[in-house]
Design goal:
Length: 367
Amino acid sequence: MYQQTEIKSYMPVNLVIGRQCVSKGKKVFLETGNKYLIVTGKSGAQKSGALYDVLQVLAGKEYEVFNEIEENPSFESIQKAGQICRDKKIDAIIAIGGGSALDGAKAIAVLGACEMEPMDLFEKEIKKALPLIAIPTTAGTGSEVTPYSILTINKWQTKKSFASSLIFPKHAFLDPGYTYSLSEYFTLSTAFDAASHLFESYLSKRSTSLSQMYANQGMESFSKCIGPLKERKFDEETRYNLMYASYLGGMAITHTGTTAMHALGYSMTYFHNFPHGFANLYFCRPYFTRMLKAVEDKTLHVIEKMGFKDYEDMCQFFEEPLDKVNLTLKDCEKYASLANMQASIQLTYGDLKEKDLVDIYLEAARL
Ligand code: NAP
Ligand code: FE
């Protein structure tokens, strides 16, 4: 019997992709708020040139700069910035930076609009948020088009995302030129994150014909970057293709969420300091082995669409820049129980139980 999967789609982000789009979008910066908080990390916004461009278009407007968002944002920094918003009557946020600054800014947009504790973001209904303009300076997370913000929860020793349609940025400006200043290391790790959004979305139990359209287009764009990523040569076209792939990955996971690979990766970041994209792809072999078993046709499609000859070719590509880490059985058991708390495990084919997650950590560490 013919059965169409239910498709739901909501995408309220007004988006521009192109060189100098911030300068060309001056009107948006003049209209979105009267007093802005510009949220950034320590250095990326400045190095990329994006902060300079934003300050130019804001000429005459009132603003404050909060540049304390760390990689994998903490409760402390978002709480501090939320308080600044309320004290100084900030009415709009501009986020400039990688996924960390963008995710931090989404949380600040909520805490700046309603007095609540950071933990409430995960436990209470979100009723209000300040309008947000997002300007990514990495090409990886797609956070500029997602309703997710991922924060570090120290008391749980992990990262967790909260979601709300109110934290979709109102506007997003994607200028690939802002990623030229990224180091080789972060260009690779963020590209890996974009790839993982694309294939995990395609392989999610929630994927639909619509989400697959974004994932397919994004994987095609990513496939053009394999050669340059191998050679560490990032010309203008590659920077564009990576940013486009990242945006499409964001669109894809907005429809489906991520899967086990992201859930497994959080402990590699929390306990071993892996940047987010490398943390995910640390599990390339064990994840894809299981996907090939559970959904072979879809998995073969993904490998081919990303431009790899086969499973081995793909694994070697993703493993090449990763550091080796020794994990004990005790580590693997602890990380598996943390990963098992993430809802994305249930969206993964293969019916993964906690003991399977322990095996995946052990296999990844042995390689
Ligand atoms: P990031 O943590 O935002 O930034 C990584 C590093 O790159 C930082 O040291 C940053 O410096 C630097 N940097 C950023 N842009 C730069 C530039 N143009 N030039 C030079 N340096 C630059 O990395 P990310 O991979 O983009 O974001 C990772 C975070 O996003 C994780 O917390 C992850 O969980 C989250 N994420 C969110 C979503 C979502 O949908 N919301 C999806 C996937 C991942 P500074 O810190 O000094 O500025
Ligand atoms: Fe991610």
